[in-house]
Structures are given as structure tokens and as C-alpha cells.
Write a structure and sequence with these properties.
62% of the residues lie in helices and 10% in strands. The protein is built from 22 helices and ten strands.
């Protein structure tokens, strides 16, 4: 892990060397003052060398001015190094997130992922800047100050140095507790961020159901868990700081007593004693810095471990020799396909289906039967557990995911729009499209006329997730996006089920235009929208229960499709099902 961390210094190694050099000079300048103090008290003042005293003082002033600029350099450019490393880690993490399979996002909340990209990496950047500075410079200062103190008096120095092993023992004792405690704090921070993201995203639902108290209860649960984790972390930190600080205080007591005895016995003179008292801070300060560094180290290491945890996850698998599928014709075949989600049992059991080029296959059946799962398997959002899926006779496992998905357009019930303008969201279908192509796509999606009634037209901002638009407007924008992409294969997953009848008619007109000439797979609960499909497959309990055209399936009055169709188009007085609607639904397998 250390090698991986050091690797992020490489692009900044020149600036890093300058930063460390500047820090070293700052430390060395700090060692000049006690020596000049010793010289003044032992020689210049007793000999009444007034001119030399003034010159020595001016020299110290010049050195302090130099140290002023050096400290500015260290603080500014040192932090820039940390920010640069943080930006690169965030870039690497974001790139990795783009490569991870859908199953990762099924198991991880957005808020928790964001915590790893923000606060965790901030702590890592602070460690990247201050860590080497504190560790290297403090170590050099410890050695340098020890040697300098020995030049004053070896035995007095050794007495003071004898306290260091005790400090090391105390540090090692609390180090593990601090590491575990700060790791728990990181996890609790991610939990509370996940809860916040969920609550803020669902604020409209919360207000609609007047469930603010419930959300507050959930927030408080996470907040209290965070407080408890912080208590443990800060308790471990407090014990660490209190114990180590007490030992450094003992240094001063030892110097006061031992130095006084040495002075009384005339082993040292007053100048050496004064210089020793001033100089011992050069020895204590690095130790204090290293004590403080331990807290920052635990924060940074915990953050980097969580960063590495995601970076080490396997991306979406792709064969090394996978080929670009090129422009496809659109024939789709599912041969004995099986699939299981990681956290649930088997969803599909030996599904076999085929769709000829330019034809439409409709998938219907009870909720949870596996229809949407089939739609997710075709663009390889998930990998099949068994069997194979072919497009134009090529196994989708043998082609690159980019080329596969380039040929597939998807329109779903839950439309996702990005925070930006109408133009930006349509352009997402093909980023290099011209304005004329965007307008043409909008016209074909039956939304251009409405866009032109807006003050800013295609530059109108739609808000987060398209909050400023109606459901029908969102759906038509997503359809325009697919028109612009112009794929050979089209997947419509409940594209109109959440719309009112009037809006559905407008959307259906756009969808009919979109489907023309494309291989289309439609998932629909409203059977009126798929009557003209070339083939209808009833998916029930992960299996193909029935197949055929609308007319063929209606010939079996006891079939799932026929019963479902009757349920949707029953008379107002329920003449189709005298026993009641609930009984009919139950008999259809719902």
C-alpha cells in the first residue's frame, strides 16, 4: 500500500524536493538561535562586545526574514502538492467507478461513495502534504538537536534522552486503538452521508407523505452512531495526547532539576545552562510534532485504505481479445439463458428467445418475473450465469462493451436527466451532434414545439434530475436522446406506464416513430401498447411461459396472457369476471 501511495508523488517530485528542502532550511535556521544565545551569554556580553551583539542580532533577524519566505513556500506549494495528489486520486477513483459493474451500485449507496471521493481523499491529501514534512523534518531535527545538545553536555543530554523510549512505548500502545477508532468514524461518516443523500433526493416524497418526523428519526440514528464513533476515536486520541504530552512535560522537569544540579556542581556554566534550556525545545518540538502526526496519519491511512478498497474491485469483465462489433443489423438470440443476482436466488431459468432484424418482441407477465433482467442482460449490464446471448450471431461476451452499447438505445420508465440544459440532455445521445441534428431529434420526439415556447428554448435549465419538467416532457427528452443516438437495437422498459392516457398517446406516437426499422424489445404492462408486436413472450417466474402473436395467445382463454388481457379490458360492471377483479388477478398469476 505504501508503494501505491508514494506513486502519487511522482508527478510532483521536483516540487516535493523543493518543499522538503525549504522545510529543512526552516528547521536548521531554528537551531541558530540557541547557539547565538550561548555565544552572547558566554562571550559577547561578558566581554562587553557591544558591536558584535548588534551584528549577531541583525544576523538572526535576516535569517528569520528568510525563514518567513521559506514558510510561505512550504505552506502554499506544499498544500498544492497535496491538492494535486488528491485530484489525481479522485480522477482515478472516478474512472474506476465508471468501470465497475451494476452490481456494485446495487450494494453501495451514493452518499457513501461520495464520502470516499470527498472527505476521505481530503484527509489523504493532508497526509500527503504534512506527512513527509513532519516525519522527515522531525526526524532530522531530533538527530540534529541531540548532537547539538551533546556538544553542550553529554550526560545531561543522555538523562533527557532516556525519556524517549517511554514515549515510544506509550505511542505504540495507543496507536492500534486510534487506528481502529478512526476507521469506525470513517464508516459512520459514510453512513450519515448516505442517509442525507437519500433523504434530500426524496424530499418531495417526504413532504407529500408528511413523513418529516420519520426522516428525522433515520437521520438521528445515523447522527448518533457518528457521535458514538467520534467519542471512541477522540477518547483514544485524548489518551494518546494526554499520556505523550505528560512525558514531554517530564522533560522540562528533568532539565530543571538535573540542569540545576549540574550548574550548582559547576559541571556547566550559566551560558551552557541557558543554551541547553533554550535548545531542548528543539528536541521536544519534533517529538510533539510526531505525536500530533499520529492522529493525521490515522485519518489519512483510513481514507487511503477506503480509496484502495474501491480501486481494487474488479471492473466489468471484458475479454482481452474482445472485438468491436461494428454496425449491427439487430438480430438478437437468447439461448438457454440463466441468471442470478448476488444477493438473491436465480431469476432466469433457461430462457430462449429470438428477435429478427427490424422486428418487435414484447415481454409481458407478472412483476418480478424477469422481464427487466432480460433487458439488462442484452447490453451486458450484468453477465449471464449460464447460456448465451447473440447479436448478429456474435456472442456479446466476445465483443467490447463500448461497441455493444453503442448499438443499443434504452428508454425506461424512470428517466434520468442531468442537471443542465435541454440541449445538453439531448446531446447526451451523441455528443458530437450539430444543433440541427438536436432539433431534428426533438421534432421526431414530439417535443420541439414545446421547447420553442420557452424563453431560452434549448438553453433552458431543467434542474436536478429534470425536476422542472413533467413526466411526459422528461420521457420525450429521453426519446429525443435515443433518436440522436440512432441505435440498431431499441429496448423500451415500461416507457409509458407512468403517464396519463393523453400524454401516453403523444409518447406512443414518438415511440412508434422511434421503433420503425429497429429491432425492438418492449416491456409493458399496458397490453394495448404491444398488440401489434411481431411476437409476445409471457415471462413468469423466470421462464418463458407463452409465446406467440396477440391473436395466437388470445386463443387460449385460460392462458396467462389472455387472462391478463381480460383483466385490463374488463367492463365497468366486471362482467368478464363475475367473481371479482381480485379473483381474476389471482388466477392470472399476480
Amino acid at each position: 500500500m505504501l508503494k501505491r501511495f508514494i506513486a502519487y508523488y511522482r508527478p510532483h517530485r521536483k516540487m516535493f524536493i523543493l518543499d522538503m528542502s525549504a522545510s529543512m532550511l526552516v528547521s536548521l535556521i531554528g537551531m541558530v538561535y540557541p547557539e547565538i544565545t550561548r555565544k552572547m551569554l558566554g562571550d559577547l556580553i561578558p566581554q562587553k562586545k557591544f558591536r558584535a551583539v548588534i551584528i549577531a542580532g541583525l544576523c538572526v533577524l535576516v535569517l528569520y526574514i528568510i525563514r518567513l519566505f521559506l514558510r510561505y513556500f512550504v505552506q502554499y506549494y506544499g498544500h498544492l502538492i497535496g491538492v494535486g495528489m488528491q485530484a489525481q486520486m479522485r480522477r482515478d477513483l472516478f474512472t474506476q467507478l465508471q468501470k465497475l459493474p451494476f452490481s456494485f451500485y446495487d450494494e453501495h449507496e451514493t452518499g457513501k461513495i461520495m464520502t470516499r471521493m470527498t472527505s476521505d481523499l481530503f484527509e489523504v491529501s493532508e497526509l500527503a502534504h504534512h506527512g513527509p514534512e513532519n516525519l522527515i523534518i522531525s526526524s532530522v531535527m531530533l538527530v540534529g538537536s541531540f548532537i547539538y545538545l551533546c556538544t553542550i553536555d553529554v550526560w545531561l543530554t543522555m538523562i533527557v534522552f532516556a525519556c524517549v523510549p517511554i514515549l515510544i512505548v506509550v505511542s505504540m500502545h495507543y496507536r492500534k486503538k486510534m487506528r481502529d477508532a478512526f476507521s469506525d468514524r470513517r464508516q459512520s461518516n459514510a453512513i450519515i452521508n448516505g442517509a442525507l443523500e437519500s433523504s434530500i433526493s426524496g424530499i418531495r416524497v417526504t413532504k407529500a407523505y408528511t413523513n418529516s418526523d420519520k426522516e428525522m428519526e433515520k437521520f438521528e440514528k445515523g447522527n448518533n452512531a457518528f457521535i458514538d464513533a467520534c467519542k471512541k476515536a477522540y477518547m483514544a486520541m485524548a489518551k494518546y495526547h494526554a499520556g505523550s504530552s505528560f512525558i514531554t512535560d517530564i522533560f522540562n522537569v528533568i532539565i530543571l532539576i538535573a540542569g540545576g544540579i549540574f550548574l550548582y556542581e559547576e559541571y556547566i556554566d550559566f551560558a551552557d545552562y541557558s543554551a541547553f534550556i533554550v535548545s531542548v525545545n528543539l528536541f521536544i518540538n519534533p517529538i510533539t510534532t510526531l505525536i500530533g502526526f499520529m492522529e493525521q496519519y490515522q485519518d489519512g491511512v483510513s481514507g487511503f485504505e477506503r480509496f484502495v478498497e474501491i480501486m481494487d474491485l474488479d471492473p466489468e469483465p471484458e475479454k482481452p481479445d474482445a472485438e468491436d462489433i461494428g454496425e449491427v443489423n439487430g438480430k438478437i438470440e437468447l439461448n438457454n439463458v440463466e441468471f442470478s443476482y448476488e444477493t438473491s436466488g436465480e431469476v432466469l431459468h433457461g430462457v430462449t428467445l429470438s428477435v429478427e432484424r427490424g422486428k418487435t418482441l414484447a415481454l409481458v407477465g407478472p412483476s418480478g418475473g424477469g422481464k427487466t433482467t432480460i433487458c439488462h442482460l442484452i447490453p451486458r449490464f450484468y453477465r449471464v450465469s449460464g447460456g448465451e446471448i447473440l447479436i448478429d450471431g456474435k456472442n456479446i461476451e466476445d465483443v467490447t462493451m463500448t461497441s455493444l452499447r453503442r448499438n443499443i438505445g434504452i428508454v425506461q420508465q424512470d428517466v434520468f436527466l442531468f442537471n443542465g440544459s435541454i440541449r445538453d440532455n439531448i446531446l447526451y445521445g451523441r455528443l458530437d451532434a450539430t444543433d440541427d441534428e438536436v432539433i431534428e431529434a426533438a421534432k421526431r420526439a414530439n417535443i420541439h414545439d414545446w421547447v420553442m415556447t420557452l424563453e431560452k428554448g434549448y438553453d433552458t435549465e431543467i434542474g436536478e434530475r429534470g425536476v422542472k419538467l413533467s413526466g411526459g416532457q422528461k420521457q420525450r427528452l429521453s426519446i429525443a436522446r435515443v433518436f440522436l443516438k440512432d441505435p440498431a437495437v431499441l429496448i423500451l422498459d415500461e416507457a409509458t406506464s407512468a403517464l396519463d392516457n393523453t400524454t401516453e398517446i403523444l409518447i406512443q406516437q414518438a415511440l412508434d416513430e422511434l421503433c420503425r426499422g429497429r429491432t425492438t424489445i418492449v416491456v409493458a404492462h399496458r397490453l394495448s401498447t404491444i398488440r401489434r408486436a411481431d411476437e409476445i413472450a409471457v415471462i413468469s417466474a423466470g421462464r418463458v411461459a407463452e409465446r406467440g402473436t396477440h391473436e395466437e395467445l388470445m386463443k387460449d382463454p385460460d392462458g396467462i396472457y389472455a387472462r391478463l388481457y381480460k383483466l385490463q379490458f374488463r367492463d365497468a360492471d366486471s362482467e368478464i369476471c363475475p367473481g371479482g377483479i381480485g379473483k381474476l388477478a389471482e388466477s392470472a398469476g399476480f
